[in-house]
Design goal:
By secondary structure, this protein is an alpha+beta fold. The chain contains ten helices and 36 strands. α1 packs antiparallel against α2. The chain starts with 13 loop residues before the first helix and ends with a helix. The relative contact order is 0.09.
């Protein structure tokens, strides 16, 4: 690995060290050259891609861009690193590639114009790729690209779709598509490389329930037509095995209470299972012949990625709220231990369940060690919306705890990990539903004596930033300060300016376009309630953000200005967040300072 930048850490607070400490992602490895791996690290202070030759131990920084790089794929033969080159973090660009051993970058598919990425699959022959693209003009297109030939379009549709996977021999391609118009519930289609359809699996048909499917991967065995598929037929995510040629489906019926993801062991004999339940996760091996489920030991906390190696060992990225992330192996020890300063630990989370209007709401609580309430309290709302907070390490909440705040993270309706009904409850009354759950937890926090009602901060990024601005307007007496990071602020303008895939999601959530259901967009837009906002508001935004574009944020800020409302805005030259440690530290410093200046002492 390149030498990490070594700033003077004398007197540096722990919260800043957590952002600067070198971290690594779970290494991806080449299917036919497992000694070659690709991972992401912030060793230089910016997240970039690194090539790792396990046979020699050599690690090499593969990319170096001002705003960082995290989207990369290693070819199955280990010869090439593909990475997505967007402009200034706007997610609109082209795939480039470079030799694994080093060398100049080159356009990976010269015949394709810039676009938003919609999946990528690389064949084992070393010369064939399937590239998904999305643009506002064309919707989704998928292209077959062979070295030395012009790319050929094999799929096109206005609705969102994406490349899933190629079979081991490259004779079959699976895509996820939403041609039925529901962007949150995909169907699967298997094609030949020339675009000829082979099979379809669609759980959105023939019933009143909206069910979705996801591609987990073809079996890594020559001539094997089995596809691992995620489904929601029993109210949660589970895997099944689908023979795409015969049509046979094998339901695994694992009887685990939470969401289950899976990937193949390299010989195709078993599955590596990741089970997520109530903000924690654990690993299992499932033997397909005996149908036996065996636990793979991991510490209590969260596994954010796992892979089975050819020798039968499992490598996984683990952390807890108290312990920083580490890449571990079941064969013992750390897989990657980056040089530089160690990341300081934080405090563990406590679980709270609160009765809400839609059922029991799970919240995770962190507070300074030994502190008793009532405390200044930060409600930190997660993005997504189909995501969830977990017992995993996060430098942002830990920074608030270091400054004397309690931090509460709420897995409101719309969050994943609590069953399909909880996730799918987020329809039509978008934003308002989530805030009902946040309000229930807020009431508990105050009545329990944990939170000081006069010193409550509402904050979040992306969808959490959207909920922050909406909450400040719809619950104006509940919050003392609001801090919204890359938020949706004006839902109608955001819809018209955002990337096409997000337009499709908004149409699904709200039941149509702003012209078709104007009353729903109005009810769910923070701009509608901006004149009711009482709390001081801080907003940070990336000027190149394609997800929460800057124009709609400027519209909201102008309304705050017109009424002389207390607010501050920080704009930075990047997209939907930053991959640069200095920039992240600056942003968190500004947020902490804003809260300190505007909360009662």
């Amino acid at each position: 690995m390149s030498e990490s930048r070594t700033p003077d850490t004398s007197g540096m607070p722990d919260w800043e060290k957590r952002f600067r400490a070198p971290r690594v992602s779970l290494p991806d490895w080449a299917e036919d050259a497992p000694h070659r791996s690709l991972f992401v690290s912030n060793a230089t202070g910016t997240y970039e891609l690194y090539a790792w030759d396990r046979a020699t131990g050599e690690q090499r920084q593969a990319t170096a861009r001002p705003n960082g790089t995290t989207s990369g794929v290693l070819s199955p033969d280990g010869a090439w690193i593909w990475w997505f080159d967007d402009k200034d973090g706007d997610e609109f660009g082209v795939w480039r590639r470079q030799p694994f051993t080093g060398g100049a970058d080159e356009p990976a598919v010269p015949g394709l114009a810039p676009s938003y990425p919609a999946g990528l699959a690389l064949a084992r022959d070393g010369r064939t790729a399937v590239v998904g693209r999305s643009t506002d003009e064309d919707g989704t297109t998928i292209h077959l690209a062979r070295a030395g030939e012009e790319p050929v379009e094999i799929y096109r549709h206005r609705e969102s779709a994406g490349v899933g996977d190629l079979s081991h021999d490259g004779s079959l391609l699976v895509i996820e598509h939403t041609e039925h118009g529901d962007a949150m519930h995909a169907a699967l289609r298997v094609l030949r490389p020339d675009g000829t359809p082979v099979a379809e699996l669609d759980d959105t048909k023939g019933g009143t329930e909206e069910l979705g499917l996801e591609v987990l991967g073809f079996a890594p065995v020559e001539g094997d037509n089995r596809l691992l598929v995620g489904h929601q037929r029993r109210g949660r995510w589970e895997p099944l095995v689908w023979d795409v040629v015969s049509g046979e489906e094998t339901d695994l019926a694992l009887e685990l209470p939470g969401d289950v993801a899976a990937e193949w062991y390299p010989d195709g004999s078993g599955l590596l299972i990741v089970h997520s339940f109530e903000a924690r996760s654990e690993l299992f091996r499932y033997d397909l012949a005996s149908r036996e489920l065996t636990r793979v030991p991991t510490p209590p906390g969260s596994v954010s990625g796992a892979t089975a190696r050819p020798d039968g060992s499992v490598e996984y990225l683990w952390s807890s709220a108290a312990e920083p992330p580490a890449v571990r192996s079941t064969s013992g020890g750390m897989v990657l231990d980056p040089p530089g300063m160690a990341c300081p630990p934080s405090v563990p989370v406590e679980d709270v369940w609160v009765e809400g209007p839609g059922g029991r709401v799970h919240a995770l609580i962190q507070k300074p060690a030994g502190a008793t309430g009532p405390l200044p309290t930060v409600f930190d709302l997660h993005g997504g919306p189909t995501w969830h907070d977990s017992d995993s390490f996060a430098a942002g909440p830990a920074a608030w705890v270091d400054h004397g705040y309690a931090v509460i993270r709420v897995n409101y309706r719309g969050s994943t990990g609590y069953g399909r009904a909880w996730t799918d409850a987020l329809k039509h009354r978008v934003g308002l539903i989530e805030l009902e759950d946040v309000a229930a937890v807020r009431d508990w926090a105050v009545s329990s004596g944990l939170a000081d009602p006069a010193r409550l901060v509402l904050t979040g990024a992306s969808w959490g930033g959207y909920l922050t601005l909406l909450g400040l307007g719809t619950q104006p007496d509940a919050w003392a300060v609001g801090i919204a990071v890359v938020p949706v602020a004006d839902y109608v303008t955001a819809y018209h300016d955002e990337m096409e895939a997000l337009k499709a999601m908004d149409r699904t959530l709200l039941g149509g376009t702003p012209e078709e259901v104007p009353e729903r967009f109005e009810a769910s837009s923070p701009l509608t309630y901006v004149d009711r906002v009482k709390a001081p508001v801080y907003i940070s935004a990336g000027v190149n953000d394609p997800r929460c574009p800057i124009r709609q944020i400027d519209n909201y800020v102008k309304r705050l200005e017109s009424r002389g409302a207390t607010h501050e805005v920080y704009r930075y030259d990047a997209g939907h967040g930053s991959l640069v440690a200095d920039e992240r530290i600056k942003q968190v410093s500004l947020e902490l300072d804003f809260a300190k200046r505007h909360l009662p002492a």
